[in-house]
Amino acid sequence: MQTLTEIRALLHARGARPRHRFGQNFLHDHNQLRRLVARARVVPGTRVLEVGPGTGTLTETLLEAGAIVIACEIDPAMSAIVRDRVMPIADGKLDIIEGDCLDGKHHLAASLCAAIDSRFGNEPYLLVANLPYQAATPLMLNLLTSAPRCSGLFVTIQREVAERLAAAPGSKAYGPLSVQAQLLAHIDMFAVLPPSCFWPAPEVQSAFVAIERINPPPTHDALALGRFLQRVFSKRRKQLGSVLGREVPWPAGIDPLMRPEQLSPQQLLTLAAAHPPPSA
Question: How many domains does one find in the chain?
Answer without folding.
Answer: 2
